[in-house]
Automatic annotation (TrEMBL):
<keyword id="KW-0406">Ion transport</keyword>
<keyword id="KW-0813">Transport</keyword>
<keyword id="KW-1003">Cell membrane</keyword>
<keyword id="KW-1133">Transmembrane helix</keyword>
<keyword id="KW-0812">Transmembrane</keyword>
<dbReference type="Pfam" id="PF02659">
    <property type="entry name" value="Mntp"/>
</dbReference>
<feature type="transmembrane region" description="Helical">
    <location>
        <begin position="42"/>
        <end position="65"/>
    </location>
</feature>
<feature type="transmembrane region" description="Helical">
    <location>
        <begin position="130"/>
        <end position="154"/>
    </location>
</feature>
<feature type="transmembrane region" description="Helical">
    <location>
        <begin position="100"/>
        <end position="124"/>
    </location>
</feature>
<comment type="function">
    <text>Probably functions as a manganese efflux pump.</text>
</comment>
<feature type="transmembrane region" description="Helical">
    <location>
        <begin position="12"/>
        <end position="30"/>
    </location>
</feature>
<comment type="similarity">
    <text>Belongs to the MntP (TC 9.B.29) family.</text>
</comment>
<keyword id="KW-0464">Manganese</keyword>
<keyword id="KW-0472">Membrane</keyword>
<dbReference type="InterPro" id="IPR022929">
    <property type="entry name" value="Put_MntP"/>
</dbReference>
<protein>
    <recommendedName>
        <fullName>Putative manganese efflux pump MntP</fullName>
    </recommendedName>
</protein>
<feature type="transmembrane region" description="Helical">
    <location>
        <begin position="71"/>
        <end position="93"/>
    </location>
</feature>
Length: 183
């Protein structure tokens, strides 16, 4: 058994950090909704699992399709973020009891899928590079889970400080992130 070179390990750590930043950014906006701690735990674990599954699927499919799918995936991610953000803003302004897309059920999977799309593209390239893929996708899952938990808890605390209009701020953040992804 050979040890992993320090440079390769640092590269994997940096990739895990970078991939987790999407989950952190979107988690801040989602966390501004009134979310219980049990739900925060479930959301973080779901995002972590998706950050393991998506690169694994990418590794299995291979790098020859990464160029074709990356553009479509980024457009889809951007539009989903904008849609979630607009829905949060409308929900807050109309004070409805039910949300169109809350981080429960299908909404939770859409959220986890959206923030893990970039890890799919990374998985495509990992499969061809020969890098320590098991370590990489494990770290992707761990980092994204912890970053999501942290963001949701920060957003939850901010929600209590700003009141009901914190959801508008969260929606604006998500719309901004969606526009950033698109452009």
């Amino acid at each position: 058994m050979t040890s992993l070179p320090l440079g390769e390990f640092m590269s994997i750590l940096m990739m895990a950090f970078a991939l987790s930043m999407d989950a952190f950014s979107v988690g801040l906006g989602i966390g501004m909704q009134a979310i219980r701690l049990k739900r925060i735990a479930l959301i973080g674990l779901t995002v972590g699992i998706f950050h393991i599954l998506m690169p694994f699927i990418g590794i299995l499919l291979g790098s020859y399709i990464s160029v074709k799918i990356e553009g479509i995936a980024m457009i889809g991610a951007g539009l989903l973020l904008i849609g979630i953000g607009i829905q949060m803003i409308i929900h807050t302004l109309h004070q409805k009891d039910n949300q169109l897309l809350a981080p429960v059920g299908l909404g939770l999977f859409v959220f986890a899928f959206t923030v893990s799309l970039d890890s799919f593209s990374i998985g495509l390239s990992l499969g061809m590079s020969g890098i320590a893929t098991a370590l990489a996708i494990s770290l992707f899952g761990i980092f994204s889970t912890v970053f999501t938990w942290t963001a949701l808890l920060i957003g939850r605390k901010t929600h209590h400080l700003l009141g009901t209009y914190s959801e508008v701020i969260g929606g604006v953040i998500l719309c901004g992130l969606g526009l950033l992804v698109l452009f």
